[in-house]
Amino acid sequence: MPIFLNSSDPDFESRFAAFLTTKREDSPEVDDVVRDIIANVRTRGDAAVLELTSKFDRMELTADQILFSETEIKAECAKVNETDRTALELAAERIRAYHARQLPQDESWTDETGATLGWRWGAVDSAGLYVPGGLASYPSSVLMNAIPAKVAGVKNLTITVPTPNGIVNPLVILAAQLSGVDNIARIGGAQAIAALAYGTDTITPVDKITGPGNAFVAAAKRRVFGKVGIDMIAGPSEILVIADKDNDPDWIAVDLLSQAEHDESAQSILITDDAAFGQAVSEAVDKRLETLERREIAAPSWHDYGAVIVVRDLDEAAALSDRVAPEHLELCVDDPDALAEKINHAGAIFLGRFTPEAIGDYIGGPNHVLPTARSARFSSGLSVLDFMKRTTLSKMSPAALKAIGPAAVTLATSESLEAHGLSVALRLKQLNSD
Amino acid sequence: MPIFLNSSDPDFESRFAAFLTTKREDSPEVDDVVRDIIANVRTRGDAAVLELTSKFDRMELTADQILFSETEIKAECAKVNETDRTALELAAERIRAYHARQLPQDESWTDETGATLGWRWGAVDSAGLYVPGGLASYPSSVLMNAIPAKVAGVKNLTITVPTPNGIVNPLVILAAQLSGVDNIARIGGAQAIAALAYGTDTITPVDKITGPGNAFVAAAKRRVFGKVGIDMIAGPSEILVIADKDNDPDWIAVDLLSQAEHDESAQSILITDDAAFGQAVSEAVDKRLETLERREIAAPSWHDYGAVIVVRDLDEAAALSDRVAPEHLELCVDDPDALAEKINHAGAIFLGRFTPEAIGDYIGGPNHVLPTARSARFSSGLSVLDFMKRTTLSKMSPAALKAIGPAAVTLATSESLEAHGLSVALRLKQLNSD
């Protein structure tokens, strides 16, 4: 059974605090294995990748089969039916339009001393996107990772997608094509991350790696962080729905289940100001779980980690939601904009009764790669900025250096950094003698 | 001796490539020690912090002495002389003015389907700044970390600064005061990072940790990443100077030494289109090294990792610089703006003959916390954005859901995510029956 909490109960605070710290994910001790895999790929390149692919994906490949050929890509794309293709094209178009607005501005100004200051944004040269294989091989994730990279201006974009037993998802290949991906490699696991970070004869090394993956992939990303940039360490998905009694309980039930069906460790939380409505949603969830295709995933998620929390009013709902800092937040209330104003921490907010979270997974436009495990307190969903970096610019005129240089000399001296001070003082000396 | 390379030499490419991959930093195996320290602090809180502070900093404290008191802060600030205070105030003011321009814009728009989309930025609630103690206890680093956090709107800002043997740098305390820091803790090492990440009775847990530190601090930051946000794993400092023959060789020599004096592992590189000028700078460096206060640090840095590279022209200089992706880049040439246009990868660019890098360390305005070890290829210097996060917003009108919802149902079906599809389909069903 999911947990039922009522903010009016005397033990609410302790129970809610305990709920917040519930550990949802096993952290298997994969770190040693991953370290060895990375060292192996770093030393032996393609040979190591091929061995590991044989071992983990049961695929016997040669080096020249690691990348999909043009012909193979065309053949896979041709397998996609017209309805799926049209839907994927609409999604790509809307995601592109949203992310194009994220392109940041360069700035330059001259201050009162004559110093010209500013910054300039540029794209990373190359990026690698990890796409899981098998059950979680989602074409939508390809669009959500690849399109921001291409909007940012990444020139060389490689995706790695394992094809265990040779099974390829044609929609993943089509999504890569629609996004402008440059290379598709049929490899996965920590070996794919190592190949992207260090390069092999076949895989060009990249500057940034993004995309979801299992515990091995996450551990590998953590290990190569620094050598390359990474996006974030993704945890299981979460949804928090704030709903008043004027919703159809069945709608809210399927919204909750839309995260629960992702993963047994996913978490779905309802906060409502009406206890009877909370009960009705719980019953609707149970009913849907009788027939849901992925009930063997969704039921344990809901029973082990689900929650129905009854609060006095929507202000209290907002405050509790901020403590959860959910990845996805639905506001199914009369005035969702007013309620959204009270929220500080959430990866994505879906406003109103006609914005189920699944719209954001596919077609709304905003990114569906979002901070999990309370990290919305300090991080953001994937964006164009993740594929760009900023260079700061400074240019002193002689007058500017005369105005602010002496303070730099003072501070350098106080930090016992003589050469720092000299680099300014020598120039000031000439300016003052001119 | 520093390495001398000439791009016209037949073996240049192989020697330059080898130079790029020279490992400058030992990675001592500190990870096990750090894991134990974090576990200890997480379990035992202040008691563990006090024991570790006694052990590493030779300071016997009680829990109520971990934080500097108001009285202690005032007393330290009063020790700073007027010249230093005025310089620090000017630096704070200029850094604040620069970073205030980084505050990002919220966006909201309604597209042709009636979907309202956008995003909203907010500050992290609390942040912790690590400030090294001893030799590298720099007040300028306090300003550079704390001011962006406060400009972003961070409400609770804690700095940790170890005071080995009880030695406090009054300028560090004053810099914290000028930046609006809320708490100052006299602790350091991995135990400080653990206390910031997990909290103790004395230290409020934070959402984001920034600031430089030694190998233990870096390993601890890597370990708590995910539980909290971190800025970056900083490596030894670097400068690359592109200079033509019309510079005073001594000016360029002290510019190179201003990074070399930071750390034996720091790296200083000159690229010039004039071999005789390169030789003159090398001789000027040697001369300065005879008397420089920190010559015992700067000399090994220059001799082990320094480089003078002679190129055919400035275009070639820009291309080689991009391969280094330096933390700091000086363009000491006639038309630095034109040359800057050719640069893609650098943490900060200092343009012209009157902009020594040290100006940026203290007083220019841009941040001096910058990407090292070639990570300017994919990351940026510290900014206000590091203390903010973005929440995406989506609101479907009934018309918008009717327009784009069917494609979401198609894609959910193709990914075998039934509840995702249902959450849209149930709403579409009602809209279509209205």
TrEMBL record, chains A, B:
Its cofactor is Zn(2+). It is an enzyme of class 1 (oxidoreductase). One of its GO terms (molecular function) is NAD binding. The keyword Metal-binding applies. It comes from the Bacteria. Its EC number is 1.1.1.23. NAD(+) binds at Y130, Q191, N214. GO terms for cellular component: cytosol. It catalyses: L-histidinol + 2 NAD(+) + H2O = L-histidine + 2 NADH + 3 H(+). Binds 1 zinc ion per subunit. InterPro entries: Ald_DH/histidinol_DH, Histidinol_DH_CS, Histidinol_DH_monofunct, Hstdl_DH. Substrate binds at S237, Q259, H262, H328, D361, E415, H420. Pathway: Amino-acid biosynthesis; L-histidine biosynthesis; L-histidine from 5-phospho-alpha-D-ribose 1-diphosphate: step 9/9. Keywords: Amino-acid biosynthesis, Histidine biosynthesis, Metal-binding, NAD, Oxidoreductase, Zinc. The active site is at E327, H328. Zn(2+) binds at Q259, H262, D361, H420. One of its GO terms (biological process) is L-histidine biosynthetic process. Catalyzes the sequential NAD-dependent oxidations of L-histidinol to L-histidinaldehyde and then to L-histidine. Belongs to the histidinol dehydrogenase family. This is Histidinol dehydrogenase. The lineage of its organism: Bacteria, Pseudomonadati, Pseudomonadota, Alphaproteobacteria, Rhodobacterales.
